[in-house]
Amino acid sequence: MKREAIVSFDVSRHLKGRKLEQEVENRTAYTIDTAELNIYETQHVAEKVELTFTSPVLASMIRGKKVMHLPGTPSFDFLPGESVIVPGDETMCIDFPEAQVQNPTQCLALAIAPDKVRQVTDLLNDRTPLIDTQQGWQFGQHNFFLTNDVPIHQLIARLVYIFTENNRAKEVFANLVIQELVVRLMQTQARTLLLSPETAFANVNRLAHVAQYINKHLHRSLQIKELADEACMSEPNFYRTFKQTFGMTPVDYINQQRLALASQLLRTTNRSLDDISMECGFNNLTYFMKLFRREIGSSPTQYRKRILPS
After folding, report:
1. pLDDT per position as a tens digit, 241-256
2. How much is the pTM?
3. Domain range 1-198, CATH class
4. Which of 23, 168, 219, 277 has a CA 20 to 30 Å removed from the CA of 74?
5. Beta-carbon contacts of residue 295 (< 8 Å; ≥ 6 apart)
6. What does the domain layout of the chain look like in residue ranges?
7. Cα separations (Å) of 96 from 27, 80, 229?
């Protein structure tokens, strides 16, 4: 799928009022009853800087580069456009390989009160429970790295604006956005865990099984009734459950996977567009080309020329 060009969060209001009191992880905190937005700035190279929050935290890069070391997770570069969820009371160990005064490393950390998290997960578990899992919806129980999609980026940007402005209704605005953000983050995590080709849940979760079934049959027409039968659910219940769990419809997912396969074939073969279209389950070449341009941002021919060497 097309990834939007990375646009940094607008922290101009914060920069006008913040005080620089230390060169490594200088912290400015904006607080409401249910959450705390921390904006950090580091101005010189540093290693093994430790940071711990008592609440689950969403960390998102604003500028520069960090190297993150989290328990039970291989070290990874942390860049703008990316976020990581870290459980409460877990220590992050952070390197700053490129920070300098002229190019500081900036990051935000949104710590969300456990009671607020519980309120959102309880609401979701009551209204749209996860199928085939005893734990139900959970947030902040494990480390989870993600690339921000457009909705998540927009919600984080909105929170930066709300926390840094002087508005008496700040608590109301922030709580509404936090609720949506937590739900979307959990849906993103569900997509990663259950829709991945390498998922370990295909034998125990019906939606994960259906995702694998879809990927095995991308070359042919797939009907919602057929998928609902695979999930042992009625059509309306399957469609509704899939959308509520993953934040996308089954048709959206099928098209996403077909375009991913088409992109792979364009990169690795010399097959004609008509052949690739048929192989990926599109029985109409015009529709394939239109959908590819809309979602990837260029025509299949332009994509192939850009990717393959001259």
Report:
1. 999 999 999 999 999 9
2. 0.89
3. mainly beta
4. 23
5. 1, 2, 255, 256, 259
6. 1-198, 204-309
7. 15, 14, 51
